[in-house]
Amino acid sequence: MPFLEPVTLPGRLVSLEPLAQSHRAELEDAVRDGELWNLWYTSVPRPEGMAAEIDRRLALQEAGSMLPFVTRRAADDRVIGMTTYMNADAANRRLEIGSTWNAAGAHGTGTNAESKLLLLRHAFETLSCIAVEFRTHWMNRQSRAAIERLGAKQDGVLRSHQLMADGSLRDTAVYSVVASEWPMVRNGLELRLARH
Prior knowledge:
Helix 3 (111-126) runs antiparallel to helix 5. This protein has an 8-stranded mixed beta sheet, sandwiched between helices. By secondary structure, the protein is of the alpha+beta class. It has one domain (9-193): Gcn5-related N-acetyltransferase (GNAT) (Aminopeptidase, 3-Layer(aba) Sandwich). It is built from 5 helices and 8 strands.
């Protein structure tokens, strides 16, 4: 059985659904909210590049290294962004949660925290992961703070790790949650979500 198989992960605030090309128009609308592609330290697709980004993620899913989702907000049934399991390593029961973006209007509403709770729960409780990683640009302070609020611990910084679209070099901050930490991280996320 493959390590990663498409699955819907339902929650109270959001539902994570397997990504499909049929989500393109909804994702184009969501990404226009905040124009996050203009932040030089992110890799958020532009609306006109959404079809290609969906194709890229689905090709990686076919290769077995990624499981991409759309994030659908329960309150209004709108797609508000994308997230993935990526860099899957079945032999070592590890994966990364990343390539995540959410419409600016969804920031601070608990939807991202619940998305991470759903992904982490599935990773540790269904896929029996040993560790789950998060990576972000060192300069993306908002993302780093969000990862730290999850309860992930910083493993280190990979300096000059990736070449960005603008030609600059990305220093990548690497974080992880290991299986023994999962109960504490889960409790923290559930406590945060109880406020929404």
